[in-house]
Structure formats: C-alpha cells, structure tokens
C-alpha cells in the first residue's frame, strides 16, 4: 500500500492554498473542490422537483439517488434505504427520538454518557422525560476520562431500551469500542444502540455492519463535504419507528417516512464526490473508478498513518510542558485516539491561549466546551473551557510545527 501523498491531497482543497493553517477541523473541515462543483452543476442544470417523467426530473432523481448510494457504500449499510438524510446530526437525532416515542413503554430505561456532544444526549433525555423513562448516566472514569465497559455492564438491565454513546469524543479524542458495546447492549432483548460518529468519521472507516450498531449518525461537513448529515438505521429498527412525514406516506416508505420535506437535493448529490475522493485515495493506481470497500479501507489506513504522525508531534510537545494538562489520554497511539487534542494551561485561561494564537494571523484553533458541556463543565469543572486542536489528513507536519512554535512562545 502506498503512503498518503499529502501534496496531491491538498490540491483537492482550494482553501488550503491561502497559507492559513486550519486546526479547527472538528468544528467543520474544508470542502473538496469536487463537492462545490457538483453542487453548482446540480443547481445550474437539474434544479427541478424529483419524481416527474420529464428528462430534467429523471436526471435530477438519478443524481440524488447516486448521492444516497454513495452514503450507503461509505458506511457499508446493506441498502440505500437505511440512509436517512437531514440538515444536521442534532436534527436527525431529534427526529429519531420523536420517531422512537411510539415504541416506548412505562418502566423502560435509557443510558447516555457524559462524554458525548449534547446532540446525542439532549433529545433522548427529553424523550425519556416526556415518556416517563428513567435516564442512567454512564460517566467517564474521573482519573482516566475513559468510559469503562464494566460500568456499562452495571447499568444494563432487562428494562434498558436504548444506549446512546459517541464513537469518539469531540473533546477527548478517545475512541470507544462500539462493536463491543453493541455486543453488550444486544444481550438485552429489545435494547438498541445509537452511536454519534461525527468526531470519528473524518479519521477512521465507518462500517455499520461490522460495528453491529442499530443507529449511526455523522455530518458530511466534518468529512470534507456539504453541510448535511446522514443517519444509518438498521432496516428492522425502521419498521418499528413512527413516521415523521405526511399521513399518506406509507409506513414502509423508507427512508422517506423519516425525511419530512424530503432531503436536500444538491447537497445529497455532492456526497458522491466525497466518497469518490476516498475511493481514489485507496485505489493505488486502479483507474476503474469503481467504489469498493477495499479501496475505502485502504484510504482510511493511509489517513490513520499520516494523522498519527501529526498527533505524536503535538502530544509529545504538550507532554513536555509542565504547565500543560492534556484532557484525555496523553498518548498518540492511533488505536486509542484520533488527532483531536484538548488541553488546559496552568494560570492561563483557555480563551487567552487562543487569543494569543490568533495574533499569529495564520493559525485557527478554538476554545470552549464544544457542546460537550456535561463533560467539560459538569465533570471537569473547566468553566473556562479547553483549548482544542483538531487536525485531519490534509494537515502537514510543517503546520504542526508552526503551531508548536507559537504555543512555545506562549507557554
């Protein structure tokens, strides 16, 4: 397998040519040029309603279907109908909680963590409150900030209806073993697992069949694409959920019954460009352009290897500073984390650290709780937030060194 060609990679992202260093990628990555071209082409040439019999509508319908099929391949879902599109991960999870309400029964329980982005907590907690369900919190170990599977074992019981967990914390960068979690959850009859993959999907291969999850959601704008999101739902789960669409939409019309107002046409079409990009990264000279699971696997292997070098450089530097505390595992091993690194500095507010980096006029990082408020403020007591540096595969070692030079002067 050939290594990642970083020079070729960066050619696909026009924003990178301006010399600015983008290290706030967990908030939203830069967009592939091919994505923007596809959006433009759709709007300029096939901007009509779907489902009609005239040529432009037939072409538009085909393009949107291509985008949905690309999402299916990217996640390795069994069929396109298991891919539900929506405006954001937060909205899709809110929709899922609403669709799930009709399946809930008195006495059931849900489990959420305190390490997740609020998108994967709030909607389910409110759902439980409306239906009178008990909410159990799976909290991170206060010393390691890891989610202990033994703690989950103690929370699971015959009343458990749903477990919601992040695949990767957008603060800690820590990767959770969702396959093992799925095995534990599915030992309980009727229990389901919902995984927030937003912070994981730009860095590692998403394979919902391998993970054995029931629901999996992420945002394409964190994965070099448009501002649109997708929720995988296992077909058997879809059959039990209530409809969110008009009364005359059939109960077995998947995924349309979960897409009120339908999906966004031009953005869905552009998703195909994202998946084609990953396929080419892993193709290693194969010119067939056929999207394969093998190519996607190789692409993310290359990405992991490149990103692990970036992560090691930054974490080694931060670990060398006595005034710095890494929030999460202070280790760069790729099996433990993705290149999202949060830290605090003794006697310097996180906001001030970022303000000083901003003065360089060439590097973008961020501070705050990043919508993981229950972790950052409630458990850690960091009311001034953390400093977060979130790298992706188009970043370079030189860019990391630029940041280190700036931080070295501050710390």
UniProtKB/TrEMBL annotation:
<dbReference type="InterPro" id="IPR011340">
    <property type="entry name" value="Cys_dSase-rel"/>
</dbReference>
<dbReference type="InterPro" id="IPR015421">
    <property type="entry name" value="PyrdxlP-dep_Trfase_major"/>
</dbReference>
<protein>
    <recommendedName>
        <fullName>Aminotransferase class V domain-containing protein</fullName>
    </recommendedName>
</protein>
<feature type="domain" description="Aminotransferase class V">
    <location>
        <begin position="21"/>
        <end position="403"/>
    </location>
</feature>
<dbReference type="InterPro" id="IPR015422">
    <property type="entry name" value="PyrdxlP-dep_Trfase_small"/>
</dbReference>
<dbReference type="Pfam" id="PF00266">
    <property type="entry name" value="Aminotran_5"/>
</dbReference>
<dbReference type="InterPro" id="IPR015424">
    <property type="entry name" value="PyrdxlP-dep_Trfase"/>
</dbReference>
<dbReference type="InterPro" id="IPR000192">
    <property type="entry name" value="Aminotrans_V_dom"/>
</dbReference>
